[in-house]
Amino acid sequence: MDLQQMAVQAVKSGNWILRRSHNGKSYNGFIWSAVGEWTEAPDWDPAPRCGGGLHGCGPEAWGFFTEGLTVDFCITDGPRVVIDAEKLKVSRAMILLRNALPEGLQVGGSLDLRGTQITALPEGLQVGGSLDLRGTQITALPEGLQVGGSLYLRGTQITALPEGVKPCQIIG
């Protein structure tokens, strides 16, 4: 199974996190393994507080993103701990996709891709809150995109919305 297929399976199973980084380097200087290799949290602590794990957003928790230009979609293995309903930490993860999102991804809250290197959105993307694409290289929105909140387009090359896209507010 290739990494793209693994990412689609991770979406279906719910064993995934989405994170932003500086090409795999966390804001605190921790360096993740290469794409397709497992990364272990050397300081794993199952307590529901910051620190002691690999952090991101997942099906259980949305709203936390650190600074970074790279978007990493990761499969997870092992314990998953929710912190303040916004952040998720895991003990082990593998980056499957860098600057790409898998088909069928459903995000419960907002998705902030502002200023990232992502260039396209997947078919069937569903975002329960706002979708912020400001400053990305995205040129078109996929069919079937669903956005429950605002859609931020300023600084993109997007000139049209696909049929059926109905965010609460388009800010462009």
Brief descriptors of the model:
6% helix; single chain; 29% strand; 14 strands; 4-stranded antiparallel beta sheet; mainly beta; 172 residues
Structure description:
Helices cover 6% and strands 29% of the residues. It is mostly beta strands. It has 2 domains: 3-98, no CATH class; 103-172, no CATH class. It has a 4-stranded antiparallel β-sheet with strand order 1-4-7-2, with helices on one face. The longest helix is centred in the N-terminal third of the chain and has 11 residues, at 3-13. The mean pLDDT is 90.
Helix/strand layout:
Elements: H1 3-13, E1 16-21, E2 38-40, E3 54-56, E4 70-76, E5 80-83, E6 87-90, E7 92-98, E8 106-107, E9 111-112, E10 126-127, E11 131-132, E12 146-147, E13 150-152, E14 169-171
Parallel strand pairs: 8-10, 9-11, 10-12, 11-13, 13-14
Antiparallel strand pairs: 1-4, 2-7, 3-6, 4-7, 5-6
Binned, the helix content reads: under 10%
Number of E-type strands: 14
Spatial strand order of the main sheet: 1-4-7-2
Report mean pLDDT, rounded to a whole number: 90
- Radius of gyration (CA) equals 15 Å
Count of helical regions: 1
User: What is the molecular shape?
Assistant: globular
Question: Could you tell me how far the N terminus lies from the C terminus, measured between alpha carbons in angstroms?
Answer: 39 Å
What string gives the helices and strands in order? HEEEEEEEEEEEEEE
Unreliable stretches? none
Strand content: 25-35%
- Our count of domains comes out at 2
Main beta sheet = 4 strands, antiparallel
Helix vs. strand class: mainly beta
